[in-house]
């Protein structure tokens, strides 16, 4: 019975610990929900949808109501000195040079462009989250490495002090070890500060999430593997699609500018009621009401060259956006080439760093044994400690560089978000 209770308590303790554990996948999920950059882009997209709805209103009739009061000191024949008119009018634009169609299509393209920009921002946040997460783990490993080096210096100092007390080594040798130990302690303090900053950076990306009581889990190597990267898929990048939609939008705006060269046709129906001043009495010498149906066609013959200038402006914007699109394609291709190169370099460095770490560990053990036997000096042991620390740092850097390169490639090909 006691054994069962112990197992239950252990399981509860295990669950309690892991409830506050944060892994890379959960960090990405939180960032996608709470990051403020994504939130801002999402609002931009919602605004673009409202612009589409607003432009749809141009296809609907307009209903207006008005009331006018007129007071004259000398009334004309057939008119009262005080009279009021109540009017309700229904109007509809029959033709305005296809401007409404062009403006609506432009807003639709802009909305699609905004959606692609939102997708691109999400991809950036995924990469930034992975980078911040990996940076935190890197700083955590650096702290552990410096703490290990400091511990070795403490042990070396104790050994050296004993030998100094026995008259085996000179005082300057002991002081040298003590200085190195103090320097190593400074590295620990700096690493602790770097780790705190890295946690704050991760917290910001997660929308200000409180990570003070969170355990940041190590990377799950099974989930961080190379995917298949097809270079032809780069053309589907959200940034490229957003710019293409923007180009289509500018084309439609150019069409809307040309609407000024066409006539405009409007139709309206109105109903008028006439009153004697502010009273409810009808004006005696006028009909009680008046219904008016009207079709109006207008054509601007000259407006100072405004329409021509607008057309040129949109053509220029189109050329400028085309240049930006071409440059973006080149930049993305360069991103891909850099990411491929960085991945290959990191893989090669990781293999080299593994071997260097094994050799440094073996070297330290040999020098430590020789130091204990009085064959090697404290300087030799200090050098071996520095070499081991440097090798650990090199291995950690190569290890994390590998996963940063994979994360970058996944971002370039937009692997993480559908």
UniProtKB/TrEMBL annotation:
Its main location: membrane. Residues 333-370 form a coiled coil. The keyword DNA-binding does not apply. One of its GO terms (cellular component) is efflux pump complex. It comes from the Bacteria. It holds the Pfam family OEP. One of its GO terms (molecular function) is efflux transmembrane transporter activity. Residues 1-21 form the signal peptide. Keywords: Cell outer membrane, Coiled coil, Membrane, Signal, Transmembrane, Transmembrane beta strand, Transport. It is found in: Cell outer membrane. SUPFAM superfamilies: Outer membrane efflux proteins (OEP) (SSF56954). The keyword Signal applies. Belongs to the outer membrane factor (OMF) (TC 1.B.17) family. This is RND family efflux system, outer membrane channel protein, TolC family.
């Amino acid at each position: 019975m006691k054994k069962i209770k112990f197992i239950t308590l252990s399981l509860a303790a295990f669950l309690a610990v892991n409830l506050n554990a944060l892994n890379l996948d959960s960090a990405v999920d939180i960032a996608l929900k709470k990051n403020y950059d994504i939130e801002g882009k999402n609002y931009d997209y919602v605004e673009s949808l409202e612009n589409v709805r607003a432009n749809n209103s141009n296809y609907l009739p307009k209903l207006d109501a008005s009331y006018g009061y007129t007071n004259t000191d000398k009334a004309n024949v057939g008119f009262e000195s005080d009279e009021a008119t109540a009017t309700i009018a229904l109007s509809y634009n029959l033709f305005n040079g296809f401007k409404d169609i062009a403006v609506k299509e432009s807003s639709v393209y802009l909305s699609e462009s905004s959606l692609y920009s939102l997708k691109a921002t999400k991809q950036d946040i995924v990469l930034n989250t992975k980078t911040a997460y990996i940076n935190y783990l890197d700083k955590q490993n650096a702290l552990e490495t410096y703490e290990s080096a400091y511990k070795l210096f403490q042990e070396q100092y104790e050994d050296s002090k004993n030998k100094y007390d026995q008259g085996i080594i000179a005082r300057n040798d002991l002081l040298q070890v003590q200085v190195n130990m103090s320097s190593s302690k400074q590295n620990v303090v700096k690493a602790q500060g770097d780790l705190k900053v890295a946690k704050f950076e991760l917290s910001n990306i997660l929308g200000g999430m409180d990570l003070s009581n969170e355990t940041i889990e190590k990377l799950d190597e099974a989930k961080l593997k190379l995917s298949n990267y097809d270079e032809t898929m780069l053309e589907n990048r959200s940034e490229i699609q957003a710019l293409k939609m923007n180009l289509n939008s500018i084309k439609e705006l150019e069409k809307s500018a040309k609407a000024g060269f066409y006539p405009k046709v409007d139709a309206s129906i109105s109903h008028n009621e006439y009153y004697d001043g502010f009273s409810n009495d009808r004006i005696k010498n006028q009909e009680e009401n008046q219904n008016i149906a009207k079709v109006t066609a207008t054509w601007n013959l000259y407006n100072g060259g405004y329409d021509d200038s607008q057309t040129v402006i949109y053509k220029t914007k189109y050329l400028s956006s085309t240049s930006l699109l071409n440059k973006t394609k080149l930049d993305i291709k360069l991103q891909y080439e850099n990411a491929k190169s960085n991945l290959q370099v990191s893989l090669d460095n990781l293999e080299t760093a593994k071997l260097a770490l094994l050799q440094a560990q073996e070297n330290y053990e040999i020098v430590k044994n020789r130091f204990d036997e009085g064959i090697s000096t404290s300087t030799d042991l200090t050098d071996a400690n520095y070499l081991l620390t440097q090798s650990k740092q090199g291995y950690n850097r190569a290890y994390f560089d590998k996963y940063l390169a994979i994360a970058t490639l996944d971002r370039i090909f937009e692997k993480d978000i559908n």
